[in-house]
Amino acid sequence: MASTAAPSAIPPADLESFSSRLKSSTRILALLGAGLSAASGLPTFRGAGGIWRTHDAMQLATPEAFDTDPGLVWQFYNYRRHMALAARPNAAHYALAELSGRKEGFLTLSQNVDGLSQRAGHPLEKLQLLHGNLFDVKCTDFYCNYVQQNNYTDPIAPALAIPVEGTDPTSFEARHAVSSALLEKKTRKELDIADESIYLPSVPAGDLPHCPECKRGLLRPGVVWFGEALPGKTIDTVNQWIMDSKKIDLILVIGTSAKVYPAAGYVDMARSKGARVAVVNTEQGDARGLTKDDWFFKGDAAIIVPEILKGVIGDVR
Ligand code: BJW
């Protein structure tokens, strides 16, 4: 039942067959990605305007990057924390939180680190954060296990204050200028006059957040970088939920390119348990391997998700 509808126009037959399946489903998974938060103003990673289109993931989101230049990596994550704090959950976050509360056999696997699902009231026991959380910090010292959750300090260290003078640091222009300068590590000399105020000096390790417990290690963001294992407890919980029962009725795949593993692999795992797949995405090309029994809903998750869940959750605003 893959649809070729115009953006945001949901074919009534698709809506009807999906709603019917949703109503009768007792075991549902949701796999969430950055597109869910796009309408909240947060950039995705791979699409148009995506972070990895202009930022080299290997210089910012790997353990090696942190070893090489922890100041640059912290500037990037301090900025991401700032943006996430300024953002607000959108209608799709609220709709999914509501659905999760209403369906007992429901588990959300979120790749998002922005905290918006939590702020929308998503039941925490039904929310597994596959790639961690921007607002967790942990010590990098090998012998120290310090982890702090819910750290919302912005900036996380005085030296990481976003150096934008005379401009609203939350404006698109300032964000863009700051993140571009971050990526390219531009020096003041290289920037043109209009960019002067956003020059980002390198931040010495001594000025970065340090572990309050061991006093030795640098703190790092509690997110999962490329080449790192996903949190063991999270993987165990997800695998157990999937394996525990003979069947899964439905998997909602919302706003993800489904290119990053092991997260993307959960779609096939759910399918192997009988799940029908419903993809919500602005790009049809990111909905691979759908069968005639699946659904593709094209458009902005913030509009589509409340609409397709309406039959079960009603109007949630
Ligand atoms: C909209 C929209 C709107 C836009 N409405 N839709 C198997 C094969 C090949 C490689 C591997 C493999 N297994 C593992 C790997 C390696 C690697 C990997 O997958 N690489 C691939 C890129 C090829 N995986 C890993 O390294 C993982 N670790 C691992 O496997 O460890 C093994 C291990 C075991 C034991 C010991 C040691 C190691 C870790 C992956 C961590 C990913 N981390 C990041 C950064 C997190 C922190 C941060 O935020 O900075 O996670 S990368 C980035 O990608 C982030 C995201 O969560 C993740 C997924 O991206 P997402 O959410 O799908 O975003 P986009 O931008 O890709 O897609 C957005 C979608 O939304 C698009 O489709 C748009 O069209 C759509 N959209 N607007 C609806 N309004």
Automatic annotation (TrEMBL):
<dbReference type="InterPro" id="IPR027546">
    <property type="entry name" value="Sirtuin_class_III"/>
</dbReference>
<feature type="domain" description="Deacetylase sirtuin-type">
    <location>
        <begin position="8"/>
        <end position="317"/>
    </location>
</feature>
<dbReference type="GO" id="GO:0005634">
    <property type="term" value="C:nucleus"/>
</dbReference>
<dbReference type="InterPro" id="IPR029035">
    <property type="entry name" value="DHS-like_NAD/FAD-binding_dom"/>
</dbReference>
<feature type="binding site">
    <location>
        <position position="214"/>
    </location>
    <ligand>
        <name>Zn(2+)</name>
    </ligand>
</feature>
<keyword id="KW-0520">NAD</keyword>
<dbReference type="InterPro" id="IPR050134">
    <property type="entry name" value="NAD-dep_sirtuin_deacylases"/>
</dbReference>
<protein>
    <recommendedName>
        <fullName>Deacetylase sirtuin-type domain-containing protein</fullName>
    </recommendedName>
</protein>
<dbReference type="InterPro" id="IPR026590">
    <property type="entry name" value="Ssirtuin_cat_dom"/>
</dbReference>
<dbReference type="InterPro" id="IPR026591">
    <property type="entry name" value="Sirtuin_cat_small_dom_sf"/>
</dbReference>
<dbReference type="Pfam" id="PF02146">
    <property type="entry name" value="SIR2"/>
</dbReference>
<feature type="binding site">
    <location>
        <position position="144"/>
    </location>
    <ligand>
        <name>Zn(2+)</name>
    </ligand>
</feature>
<dbReference type="InterPro" id="IPR003000">
    <property type="entry name" value="Sirtuin"/>
</dbReference>
<feature type="binding site">
    <location>
        <position position="139"/>
    </location>
    <ligand>
        <name>Zn(2+)</name>
    </ligand>
</feature>
<comment type="similarity">
    <text>Belongs to the sirtuin family. Class I subfamily.</text>
</comment>
<keyword id="KW-0862">Zinc</keyword>
<keyword id="KW-0808">Transferase</keyword>
<keyword id="KW-0479">Metal-binding</keyword>
<dbReference type="GO" id="GO:0046872">
    <property type="term" value="F:metal ion binding"/>
</dbReference>
<feature type="binding site">
    <location>
        <position position="211"/>
    </location>
    <ligand>
        <name>Zn(2+)</name>
    </ligand>
</feature>
<dbReference type="GO" id="GO:0070403">
    <property type="term" value="F:NAD+ binding"/>
</dbReference>
<dbReference type="GO" id="GO:0036055">
    <property type="term" value="F:protein-succinyllysine desuccinylase activity"/>
</dbReference>
<dbReference type="GO" id="GO:0017136">
    <property type="term" value="F:histone deacetylase activity, NAD-dependent"/>
</dbReference>
<feature type="active site" description="Proton acceptor">
    <location>
        <position position="131"/>
    </location>
</feature>
<dbReference type="GO" id="GO:0036054">
    <property type="term" value="F:protein-malonyllysine demalonylase activity"/>
</dbReference>
